[in-house]
Amino acid sequence: MQVPAPFEYERAISVDDALALLDRLGPEARVIAGGHSLLPMMKLRLAAPEHLVDINDLRDLDYIRTNGSEMRIGAMTRHRTLLESDALEVQFPIFRDAEQVIADPPVRNRGTIGGALCQADPSEDLSAVCAACHAKLVIRGLDGERVVDMDEFHKGPYETSVGPAEMLTEIRLEMRPRPGSAYEKVERRAGDWAVAAVGAAVWMDEDRIADCGIGLSALGSNVLRAHRAEEELRGKPATDETIEIAGRAAYEECEPVTDQRGSAEYKRHLAYELTKRAVRRALERVPRG
Ligand SMILES: Cc1cc2nc3c(=O)[nH]c(=O)nc-3n(C[C@H](O)[C@H](O)[C@H](O)COP(=O)(O)OP(=O)(O)OC[C@H]3O[C@@H](n4cnc5c(N)ncnc54)[C@H](O)[C@@H]3O)c2cc1C
How far is the CA of 193 from the centre of ligand 1 (A)? Predict the structure, then answer.
């Protein structure tokens, strides 16, 4: 039987209350959201927080709403809500693609987008999705909030720019004209973590790719975005040749390692193939005209 180390438990009633608790309890306190990443780590003694601050009562952080030209997602929004959101599907179908292949219903019913991003597991799917969509992250502390992009948020494996007495509260996605997006994942069995996965988002201007994002999962612990592949697409016509060049760039810039899920070379091949597939499908989804 796996048993966590002893810990004290607090239940926050508001974001301010959670931040005050984190501040008072110090760096050995951790927020717990869905618990699907933190509890297994505690049971394996890979994490041993002295205090858990439960934020499951913060219902005001569970939403998907539009605000002007932005779509805003609260940090406590569950995977299942993301999967079922039609509003999100219209602007960012990449979320439904990814959620369909994340874990299983019990995990999706409980796990949150905030927990997934803050866990910063290199094989995690929503970080790649948010990187592709150029998401902005709202981090709140006792002195106010700051907004960072994914490159700044994601410091490396299991590390983010969220400080000890801070919380991720919101994910913001800019809604731009003529969007298309898609997520492609190879897994060993249904609901498993990615062997490799690629998310692509494009925004079109006439027949050119005005802007794009390519997010990578399980393709290198410090490689969340395929910047060179993006450069090969940006401003270019949406042709097979452009897509082929972008796939090759992703192949070269990813940094996968050999592990129980596959060899580094196999994963590199997946980076190439999945980038092409994700970009192609994203382009197919761009509204005409
Ligand atoms: C069997 C299984 C299969 C899975 N398969 C996949 C998969 O295929 N793909 C995938 O991407 N994920 C997978 N997951 C992970 C799942 O998506 C988790 O729900 C998610 O990673 C963490 O979300 P959570 O709400 O449970 O976070 P928690 O476990 O509660 O927290 C995770 C970390 O984030 C911190 N945290 C949580 N919320 C905040 C916040 N608002 N502000 C600051 N810090 C915060 C916590 O302190 C903790 O350090 C799987 C999990 C399980 C158990």
Answer: 12
The whole-model pTM stands at 0.97
Q: Which of 119, 126, 183 to mutate to test the pocket of ligand 1 (most atoms within 8 A of CB)?
A: 119
Q: Is 32 in the pocket of ligand 1 (CB under 6 A)?
A: yes
Name the CATH topology of 179-284.
Answer: Enolase-like; domain 1 (3.30.390)
Could you name the CATH architecture of 8-54? 2-Layer Sandwich (3.30)
| Per-residue pLDDT tens digits for 184-239 | 999 999 989 999 999 999 999 989 999 999 999 999 998 999 999 999 999 999 99
Residue 289 to residue 276: CA distance in whole angstroms: 23
Query: Could you tell me which residues are beta bridge partners of residue 53?
Result: 10, 31
Ligand 1 mean position, distance from CA 206 (Å): 39
Is the Cβ–Cβ distance between 37 and 121 less than 8 Å? yes
